[in-house]
Amino acid sequence: MHLIISDVMPALCPFLTLVCLPVIILLVLLYVFREVLGSCPPCRSNKRLDGKTVIITGGNAGIGKETAIDLARRGARVILGCRSAERAQEAVRDIIAKTGNSKVVFYILDLADLDSVRQFAATVLEKESRLHILINNAGIGKAAVLIPGSTTKQGFDLTFGTNYLGPFLLTYLLLDLLRSSAPSQIINVSSHMHWFCFRQLNFNSETKNGVRYPYLTGYEISKLGNVLHARELAKRLQNTGVRANSLHPGMVETEIWTPLKKKYPAWMYNFLMSIIRMFGLNSTEGAQTTIYVSVDEGAEEYNGRYFAKCTLSKENRLALDDSTCALLWDHSMKMCDLK
Ligand SMILES: NC(=O)c1ccc[n+]([C@@H]2O[C@H](COP(=O)([O-])OP(=O)(O)OC[C@H]3O[C@@H](n4cnc5c(N)ncnc54)[C@H](OP(=O)(O)O)[C@@H]3O)[C@@H](O)[C@H]2O)c1
Ligand SMILES: *[C@@H]1O[C@H](CO)[C@@H](O)[C@H](O)[C@H]1NC(C)=O
Ligand SMILES: *[C@@H]1O[C@H](CO)[C@@H](O)[C@H](O)[C@H]1NC(C)=O
């Protein structure tokens, strides 16, 4: 047997490299393009959301705004959480004009400042008696951090703080309202980019170069946090009628890419954007999975799951580790000074 293999191998090697390897690379590329960039089927549910209240963070642009338009069309009361009153006002006007639903409002929310998150939650608790869907959509992309080492007001990594910690505190403060409005749900807009975390999270809590928890930084970790958070929430909220799920919207042409303009020369930025335009989704298409999870009756049995393209998807193995979910929860409580 050994003899045969060693006889054949030398002849096999060039064959492998010349034919098999390119074919394998091509197949992998096609798979990645289809999985990560490819089209998303529209959410076909006609479900109405009359009488339901929805919060969408960052609902003034991109995926969040398209989600807001769709849910408002279904009759929901839609609350946007936005950091700019001016942009929020304009979006509210536009959403009302497009949908004819006047139950659209905004309250100020800056996720990069835990005090602002507390203020927003207090306003919601004061003004709203019900909350059925909380969509943690707002986020900044990799390119948004122009100065490395930028932090939130409380000194956490800017991306981690905006994409994960702010939403964690927001969700925590609204849990009782979600519980009393059950059946209700929490949806985290995560990203397939969370697959690019290859190592266990490092919860070292020292402050390094002015950053608290200096190893919890960057886009990939913040998005892994969204998935872990949804799973831990799902576990904690069992039998309360509150579900928690996370999702990948697709590769979507939104303002999330705009900061790249400052990072790259114009030709490179334009080239990248044309790739995204060609293979990616526009923001209406990018909102479909969020809408699907928000309304689809078929998804109602799901809890603590991860979605993409309007269907169940696979999360990073690291996101399935129950002890990491629990550890991240405990540390997040400490970061937010919660008991
Ligand atoms: N686009 C993609 O290809 C893609 C892929 C995977 C995942 N995602 C995720 O999808 C979500 C939505 O992104 P998008 O593509 O729609 O981007 P976008 O067009 O840039 O919209 C992001 C929204 O988040 C808001 N926001 C940012 N920082 C905030 C803060 N500190 N406090 C409150 N609101 C804040 C923005 O408000 P301003 O208008 O004030 O900036 C904006 O409304 C993000 O979580 C992103 O990670 C996007
Ligand atoms: C989503 O992640 C945020 C942190 O980014 C967390 O606060 C929230 O509870 C999570 N919700 C779900 C459903 O994962
Ligand atoms: C996105 O494309 C679809 C067609 O595929 C179109 O109906 C929709 O209006 C577009 N949305 C935006 C925001 O351009």
TrEMBL record:
<dbReference type="GO" id="GO:0016491">
    <property type="term" value="F:oxidoreductase activity"/>
</dbReference>
<dbReference type="InterPro" id="IPR036291">
    <property type="entry name" value="NAD(P)-bd_dom_sf"/>
</dbReference>
<keyword id="KW-0560">Oxidoreductase</keyword>
<keyword id="KW-0472">Membrane</keyword>
<keyword id="KW-1133">Transmembrane helix</keyword>
<protein>
    <recommendedName>
        <fullName>Retinol dehydrogenase 11</fullName>
    </recommendedName>
</protein>
<dbReference type="Pfam" id="PF00106">
    <property type="entry name" value="adh_short"/>
</dbReference>
<keyword id="KW-0812">Transmembrane</keyword>
<dbReference type="InterPro" id="IPR002347">
    <property type="entry name" value="SDR_fam"/>
</dbReference>
<feature type="transmembrane region" description="Helical">
    <location>
        <begin position="12"/>
        <end position="33"/>
    </location>
</feature>
